[in-house]
């Protein structure tokens, strides 16, 4: 049995629970999580963190 993996991005106006619901509707189970900060430059100064990008890894048995 082969396992298919796919990364799901938690949208800006979406909760983690809503993203997990979307994953299960597509037939995936949560298998991991990663976070990356999103930075922006403000008026030529140093980069400032704006928000956190959250990605959930889903696994589907095919």
What this model shows, in words?
This is NETI protein. InterPro entries: NETI. 16% of the residues lie in helices and 56% in strands. The chain is α+β, with helices and mostly antiparallel strands and 62 residues long. It has one domain (3-37, 50-61). The protein has a 3-stranded antiparallel β-sheet. The mean pLDDT is 93.
Please, what is the average pLDDT?
Answer: 93
- Give a quick account of the main beta sheet: strands, pairing sense, barrel closure: 3 strands, antiparallel
Spatial order of strands in the largest sheet: 1-3-2
| Large-scale geometry | elongated
Radius of gyration: 15 Å
Task: Enumerate the spans where pLDDT stays under 50 for 5 or more consecutive residues.
Answer: none
Number of alpha- plus pi-helical segments = 1
Proportion of helical residues: 10-25%
Q: In whole angstroms, how far apart are the ends?
A: 6 Å
Q: Can you write the helix and strand succession as a string? A: EHEE
**Structural class computed from helices and strand pairing:** alpha+beta
Number of strands: 3
Total count of domains: 1
The portion of residues forming beta strands comes to over 45%
Task: Record the SSE blueprint.
Blueprint: E1 3-9, H1 16-25, E2 29-41, E3 47-61
Antiparallel strand pairs: 1-3, 2-3
InterPro entries: NETI
Protein name: NETI protein
Write a compact overview of the structure shown.
A hairpin with a 5-residue loop joins strand 2 and strand 3.
């Amino acid at each position: 049995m082969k396992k298919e993996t796919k990364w799901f991005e938690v949208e800006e106006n979406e909760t983690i629970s809503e993203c997990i619901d979307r994953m299960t509707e597509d037939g995936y189970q949560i298998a991991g999580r990663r976070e990356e900060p999103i930075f922006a430059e403000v008026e030529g100064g140093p980069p400032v963190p704006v928000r956190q990008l959250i990605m959930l890894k889903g696994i589907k048995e095919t």
